[in-house]
Amino acid sequence: MMMRILRKGLAASAIIAIALVPVSCTHETADANKNEEKFVSQTLTEEAAHQQIISYLQKTADETGVGFSLTPDQGNNGSALQPALRAPCYAGDQERGPHQVQMRYWVVGIPAGQLSHYKSLLQDTWTSWGWKLDPEATPKLTGVGTPDHYSFILQDAGKGDGWLSVTAASPCFPFEGLGSTTPQPSEIHRRTS
């Protein structure tokens, strides 16, 4: 299950970073079932999904001290990331079928030479909250799933400091739940007391 989410997250990350083209939530291989069943929350809306992802990232920033930004840290020549994307959950029903919210941020505020430590810190923090780690995680790619069906994928681009990103995806929600008025924050940092 999580491997499919990871693959979807990687595909979504690549597409978001390149062209912001909607992607399906299905695992796309020649032998994959293009219409496999996915969890669709009948009560979730785009607005609620959007706010929940931001809430999870804010909680993460508060607990770990890292930040999340659409703009990379200085020294990272990566491009700014695009705002949230709503993506169809099924390849064959893109217009009126279930959708999900996807957001991608650079992980910022990591001291030089500490990328691996902070990647582990994020992973350990999330699993301490009861989030399930993908058993197929690699040193460059780690995925976790929340009990309420959100997924978070940490990706180390392998280019040194400043190249860690997180892609978050909501569960699917009905087409009727589309519509969000809350803008995605360009940065999320630890709140001060």
Q: SSE order, as H and E?
A: HHEEEHEEEEE
Largest sheet: 8 strands, antiparallel
Tell me, rounded to a whole number, the average pLDDT.
Answer: 80
The helix count comes to 3
* Gyration radius over CA: 16 Å
Distance between the termini: 39 Å
**Helix/strand/pairing class, anyone?**
alpha+beta
Q: What is the percent of helical residues? A: 25-40%
Structure summary, number of beta strands: 8
Strand content: 15-25%
Q: Give the overall form.
A: globular
* Unreliably modeled segments: 1-35
Could you walk me through the main structural features you see in this protein, from its secondary elements to its overall organization?
The chain is α+β, with helices and mostly antiparallel strands and 193 residues long. The protein has three helices and eight strands; from the N terminus they run H-H-E-E-E-H-E-E-E-E-E. Strands 1, 2, 3, 4, 5, 6, 7 and 8 form an eight-stranded antiparallel β-sheet that branches. Strand 4 and strand 5 form a beta hairpin. 35% of the residues are buried. The N terminus is likely disordered.
Please describe the topology of this protein.
Layout: H1 2-18, H2 46-64, E1 67-69, E2 85-88, E3 99-108, H3 115-128, E4 132-133, E5 141-145, E6 151-156, E7 164-169, E8 187-188
Antiparallel strand pairs: 1-3, 1-8, 2-3, 3-7, 4-5, 5-6, 6-7
